[in-house]
Structures are given as C-alpha cells and as structure tokens.
C-alpha cells in the first residue's frame, strides 16, 4: 500500500535518541527511506536501524559530527550515494549547555561546541543539502520556544543558537521557494527522556505551559511529519509551535 512518503528519501540529523529516533520511526512508517546521523551513540543507532528494518523500513545510520561543519558535504554525498537522492532534511541534532551570561566559571569550550553544533553545523548541512534536494523538497528545522521567548534564566546561548538557525531556515524558504522546496521550523516543547529533563528545568518550564505536561517525542515527530507530507505543500517560512502552549 502507498504511504504519504513512499518514494521519498529523508535525512534526520541526530536520529539515535529522543525526538530524532521518534522522527526516524515515523517517517519510515509513512513510507520514506530514512538516513540519520549520530555522533557517539553507536549502539543506539544500530538498534534503531535493526528496529526499523525489522518493520520493513529502509534505513541507514551515518556517523557525522555536526560540530565540524566541514563534514557536511561528505555526509550529504554519502546519503545521496546510499539512497539515490534526497527529498526531506530534518535538522534535529543539537545539544544544550546551560549557564548564565555572567558566570565567571562558564565552560566556554562547551558553549562554543554548542554554537558550532546547533548553528554552524546546521547551516553547513542546509547549504550542502539544498544543492541536491529534489523538487518538492522539504527542510524542517527543530527549534525551541526559547528562540521566541527565553522565559527562564541560564539558556541565553542555547536560545541564541536556535533563534539564529530559525532565521536561517526562513531565509532558505525565500531562496529555495522558486525550486518548489519548502523550509519550516518546529518549535519543540520539553520532552520525556530528552535533553532538558533536569528537575530544575522541568520545574521552571512546566508551570509556563498551557498543557502543564511534558510531551511524548512522538507528539513532536507528528508535527515534523506533517510538514514533510504532501498535505503541507503550501506551507513554507512558518514556525509551528509544538510546545504545549508556552506562548499562549
Ligand atoms: N528535549 C527537550 O525537552 C527539547 C525541548 C525543546 C527543543 N528541543 C530540541 O529538540 C531536538 C531534539 O532534542 P532531544 O531532547 O531529542 O535530544 P537528545 O535526546 O539529547 O538527542 C540528541 C541527538 O542529537 C545527536 N547529536 C548531538 N550532538 C551531535 C553532533 N555533534 N553531531 C551529530 N549528532 C549529534 C545525538 O547523537 P548521539 O546519540 O550520538 O549523541 C542524538 O541523536 C533538539 O534540536 C533540541 O534542541 C528539545
């Protein structure tokens, strides 16, 4: 039976865990051939590959460190060589390094790595992918509600890295629209088992949400899958809030 993404090739960055893994599963379920990246979770990456192949899906994992933007062209070449093309890019991989701007003991090397991973690395992947994305291609960048309204202390660097890549994605919508390629942002909310489950972050954020609960990663993956689907053909340059009503 034909699924909405049959015949499409997707690349999900950071597919070994959390939202990325949920997105790999869902896009494969909807018929796409799915490549995904990871950097250190080799065992988890292989487990996702085995799981999706076990359900009849076509999937492959690629080790690629997004903190090194020079690796992006080789990654895209590998994906295209493996699957024969590229239709959907999901920019999901990111890290979160907390800390206030006046912290005298700030781990600036870790903060620099975060900016490289969340911003420069994503730009490099969008640049490389946009050269090969086929007509009706999709770019979907995962961001956070903090990119629009910071809301809590200690996340200035993280919020800035995400706000930057949001604007870059919307710029891509303008540049690539004439080729029929859409580019959108999904602002994710706090998720079960994700990067922001330290009790202090949860406590600070939960009270600000209309829904007053954390998300199942599959609820955010559904928003990504919508933007990847034929149903979203006229949606571009949009920021879709999937964060439980943080801005309501
Ligand atoms: N979790 C939340 O509450 C929350 C809230 C709002 C927005 N978000 C956003 O949602 C997205 C997913 O978050 P998550 O919580 O699912 O993350 P996560 O569970 O921490 O997983 C991060 C994924 O990114 C990969 N990754 C990290 N650094 C990488 C690098 N240098 N190169 C390649 N891959 C790298 C990881 O690979 P390895 O497994 O190999 O390390 C992993 O697959 C992120 O963009 C995040 O900013 C999350």
Helix content: 40-55%
Q: Kindly give the count of domains.
A: 1
Give the neighbour order of strands across the main sheet. 3-2-1-4-5-6-7
Assign the CATH topology.
Rossmann fold
In round numbers, the mean pLDDT is 96
Largest sheet: 7 strands, parallel
Bound molecules: NADP nicotinamide-adenine-dinucleotide phosphate
Broad structural category:
alpha/beta
**Fourth CATH level, the homologous superfamily:** NAD(P)-binding Rossmann-like Domain
Strand content: 5-15%
Morphology call: globular
Radius of gyration: 17 Å
- In the CATH hierarchy, the architecture is 3-Layer(aba) Sandwich
Low-confidence stretches: none
Distance between the termini: 40 Å
Secondary structure tally: strands: 7
CATH class category name: Alpha Beta
Provide the succession of SSEs. Answer: EHEHEHEHEHEHHE
- Count of discrete alpha- or pi-helical segments spanning 4 or more residues: 7
Describe the structure.
With 248 residues, the chain is α/β, with parallel strands linked by helices. The protein has a single domain, classed as Rossmann fold (3-Layer(aba) Sandwich). It contains 7 helices and 7 strands. The protein has helices spanning 18-29, 42-54, 72-83, 108-130, 156-176, 199-206, 217-228, and strands spanning 9-12, 33-38, 59-63, 88-91, 138-144, 182-188, 239-242. It has a 7-stranded parallel sheet, with helices on both faces. Strand 1 (9-12), helix 1 and strand 2 (33-38) form a beta-alpha-beta unit. Helix 1 crosses helix 7 (217-228), helix 3 (72-83) crosses helix 4 and helix 4 (108-130) packs parallel to helix 5. The N and C termini lie far apart (40 Å). The protein binds NADP nicotinamide-adenine-dinucleotide phosphate (NAP). Residues 14-20, 37-41, 44, 64-67, 92-95, 117, 142, 144, 188-191, 194-196 line the site of NADP nicotinamide-adenine-dinucleotide phosphate (NAP).
């Amino acid at each position: 039976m034909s699924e909405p993404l049959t015949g499409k090739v997707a690349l999900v960055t950071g597919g070994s865990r959390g939202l990325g893994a949920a997105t790999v599963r869902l896009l494969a379920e909807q018929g796409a051939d799915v490549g995904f990246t990871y950097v250190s979770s080799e065992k988890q990456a292989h487990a996702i590959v085995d799981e999706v192949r076990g359900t009849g899906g076509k999937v492959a994992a690629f080790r690629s460190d997004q903190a090194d933007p020079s690796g992006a062209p080789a990654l895209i070449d590998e994906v295209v060589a493996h699957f024969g093309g590229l239709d959907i890019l999901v920019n999901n991989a990111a890290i979160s390094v907390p800390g206030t701007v006046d912290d005298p003991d700030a781990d600036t090397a870790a903060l620099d790595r975060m900016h490289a991973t969340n911003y420069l690395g994503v730009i490099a992947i969008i640049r490389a992918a946009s050269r090969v994305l086929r007509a009706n291609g999709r770019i979907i960048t995962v961001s956070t509600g903090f990119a629009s309204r910071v809301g809590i202390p200690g996340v200035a660097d993280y919020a800035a890295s995400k706000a930057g890549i949001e604007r870059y994605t919307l710029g891509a919508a303008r540049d690539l629209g004439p080729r029929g390629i859409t580019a959108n942002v999904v602002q994710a909310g706090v998720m079960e088992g994700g990067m922001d489950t330290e009790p202090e972050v949860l406590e600070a954020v939960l009270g600000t949400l209309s829904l007053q609960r954390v998300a199942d990663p599959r609820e955010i993956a559904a928003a990504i899958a919508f933007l990847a689907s034929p149903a979203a053909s006229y949606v571009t340059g949009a920021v879709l809030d999937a964060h439980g009503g943080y801005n309501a």
